[in-house]
Amino acid sequence: VVGHPVRHEYTVIGRKVNLAARLMMHYPGVVSCDSETCYYSKLPAFYFNELPKKAMKGVKNPGVLYQFMANKQQITVGKAPMSVEREEGYPLLGREKEIEVYSSMLKGFLEARAAGHKNYNNVLIYEGPIGYGKSRLLAEVVYRTAKEGVRVISFELAKTDIKQSNYALQTLLAIVMSVQNCKSYAERERVLLSKILDPKMRQNLCLLNDILLVKFPVSKDVSLMDSQTKNKKMRNYFLELFCKFAEDEPCVYVLDQAHFVDRSSLTFLLYSGFAFRPFEECYTFVEESQSDPNLVADKSLMMNLYSALALWYA
Questions:
Q1: 154 CB-side CA count, 13 A
Q2: Is position 285 within any domain?
Q3: Domain shared by 164 and 66, yes or no
Q4: How many C-beta atoms lie closer than 10 Å to residue 296's C-beta?
């Protein structure tokens, strides 16, 4: 401790401090870290980009270094793959009951669809403590569902996503519309135009501008709407899109870390459940795991989500 008691300065030394100083010097303007910090952040891998190796004074072997991408929404649209994938040769053990429940529900859904029914839908929620193996279970679900020839739309949320308005809805919509791998707004627009062929729906493509980061011309009707009317119109339009693609092929939606759904997306889910009951031919699989209560926006709100989903797909 040095300096006047009112202005004490504390000096810390060690390998980590030296590494941090070298990172700031050799990678200016970015938030950088080593592999250990990346691991203990508990964030999905898509939050980090590997940095090129550089020779640094006093640091012989720093290992792999990463740049932290603070805002995914500015980097990609709908890019939120699941961090756990099924590994060949490593079968899932001790989860026969959970898999049996899911397999039974999926079989019932496919049989009802083949028979021409449009009102057989359901939601399955897994809940358990950290380390219980929920993500591994979801990976098995994705694998088995794909083997049945059913389209799987899966993504994983992270702790920071709860602070990004409409992030969960944006990700879901982007994957449904197959624009998650597009690198520019122009490319996303081309894909959307190839997917949406109905003239009436094309008139309102501008409603996707904010959610999917595109630049379709704003129609006259939309330009004259007030904020409340426009938001309602957007919700209805998103529902039309989901329902349309649900009619074309059966879908299973897999959501890992569902307790990190942001409030705006949660509001849309509740609105959808009580107002429209969409996805008449979709089966939804939602995973929720135990988390720090401080990270969840509102515990009662999450319970309302589950109630809405049960009604939505009942």
A1: 21
A2: yes
A3: no
A4: 16
Same-domain check for residues 253 and 139: yes
Instruction: Please state the φ and ψ torsions of residue 17, each to the nearest 5 degrees.
Output: -65, -40
Do 112 and 41 fall within a single domain? no
The tally of domains found in the chain comes to 2
Q: Which residues contact 113 (CB under 8 A, 6 or more apart)?
A: 120, 250, 281
Q: Do 145 and 61 belong together in one domain?
A: no
Distances (CA, A) of 112 to 118, 141, 142, 183, 197: 8, 20, 21, 39, 28
State pLDDT tens for residues 116-174.
Answer: 776 666 778 887 777 788 888 888 888 888 888 888 888 888 777 888 888 888 988 89
Cα–Cα distance, 77 to 182 (Å, whole number): 8
32, 124: one domain: no
The pair of structure tokens assigned to 35 is: 């592999």
- DSSP states along the chain: -BS-GGG-B----SHHHHHHHHHHHHSTTS-EEEHHHHHHTT--GGGEEEPPP--BTTBS----EEEE-S-GGGT-SS----S--PPTT----S-HHHHHHHHHHHHHHHHHHHTT-S----EEEE---TTSSHHHHHHHHHHHHHHTT-EEEEEE--GGGGGSTTHHHHHHHHHHTT-TT--SHHHHHHHHHHH---HHHHTTGGGGHHHHT--PPPPHHHHT--HHHHHHHHHHHHHHHHHHHHHHS-EEEEEESGGG--HHHHHHHHHHHHHT---TTEEEEEE-----GGGSS-HHHHHHHHHHHHHHT-
| Domain around 48 | 5-70
List pLDDT tens digits, range 68-121: 876 554 445 655 667 777 877 777 888 889 889 888 888 888 888 788 776 666
Both tokens of residue 99? 């898999």
C-alpha dihedral sign at 156, 158, 161, 163: positive
- The two structure tokens encoding residue 51: 């940095």
What are the phi and psi torsion angles at 24 (to 5°)? -65, -30
